[in-house]
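Supplementary Note 3. Input sequence used for the single-chain structure prediction.
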Amino acid sequence: MTQEFVLGLDIGTTSVKACIFHLNGKLEAEVEKLNTFYYPETGWAEQDPEEIERSSVAAIKEAIEKAGIEKHELLAVAFSAAMHSLICIDEEGKPLSKALIWADGRGFAQAERIAETNGKTIYAKTGTPIHPMTPFIKLLWMKETNYQPYNQAKYFMSIKEYLLYRWFNERVIDYSMASATGLFNPDTLKWEPELLRQTGIFEDQLSAIVSPTKVLTGIDQQIAAEMEIDIETAFVIGAADGQLANLGIGAILPGEVAVSVGTSGAIRQFTKGAKISENQETFCYSFTEDSTIIGGPTNNGGIALQWLKDLLGSKESFGEFLSFAEQVPPGADGLIFLPYINGERAPLWNQRAKGNFYGVTVTHKKEHFIRAVLEGITFNLYQIGKALEELTGEPKKLYVNGGLARSPLWLQMMADIFEADIYVPESHHSAAWGAAWTALVAMNKAASFEEIKENIPMSAAIVPIPQNSAIYKKIYQNYVMLAKDMEKYFK
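The predicted structure, written as discrete structure tokens, is reproduced below.
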């Protein structure tokens, strides 16, 4: 009996993706199910965990059917998941609340108070910036507002933990997802008691912390029947999407930096041990017992371009819409965009931040605004990357993935602004492949995480254009000064 395939289940905020890979990394089949967003009040952002579970079950079933493989050919299923979600769960494992996702900003008042009092001390312990995205701040908001699901909850879980509990009746969380809660100490690899006390919860209300290679078997019979898999199919807990995107793209050695830009964005690098930014500009999240990933997430990636497209009423495809920017030289003829339309995480960590166009003149047209938004997104990533450099040194190699990586114009812009060669994998499912590779390590089919580098097909590198880089250097200085000056208006 041969087992030649592994399935990576990537539970993102925009969608759930089930990707089936050959053991060498070749993508055999993929299925995507879009998720619904709920905005019950201004600043709130929620999703339905039961809907995401149904989507996950359906995606796994359909991916197996699409690949045309037999049950016995599936070696394992492994998880990648978006960070920072929080669900209140009752004793029977049913959700009492929607999932509050990373974009939920209802705890901004609690975040501001903590940041102004003992935020630096907490950040130094956890490596997680003080921000409404974190379950730590969400729990404080729940406690202080007498949120009924919080008062009734037996457990508190992320979406991934909820699926594992529903499918295996086990409450487990990997190091990276635990780290992203803001309640975890990467030095001790345990929940931080003082932070639990502040949020009013007990350790037994949280899941047991385990390695990303933890294997679960014996899935619920009904769920197995719906997926059309064997009950004893191995499920590997995996990790957070950020860590796994770096792994899946091959950015795992010192000096190798990964940039992911979809709806939001992030720039990240693996390192040994915990490295904390004195200015609280970056996160430091665990992956394994002795490795962490440091970097910064931005709220404003492709969402800023989609906002502009909707605002202009453009009916073209996304690719055609971006192509208008090719008509404009670097710098958008003096138009600069601060991309903080959705508040901002790194490098500001300010949910009150606002977007802004600077330098608008009567000569600016649609194409100028498109290019300015692309450049603003990229300048923001570059600014986060400079903060990362202070901890890790100058990057040696830059890998890029995510939805925007399908734009040749943006990839060239990345190369020009970062003044670095850009490497792009042929597959855009890096987080799912990172999850799948974690399963191969767990099942002793791969000797190490590093071995994945031999199994990632890459496209040709994009190299910087020196004259463009020179232009962008000058514009970036103006961008930074403008961003700093605008902070006093973020109220």
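The first helix runs from residue 49 to 67. The first strand starts at residue 5 and ends at 11.
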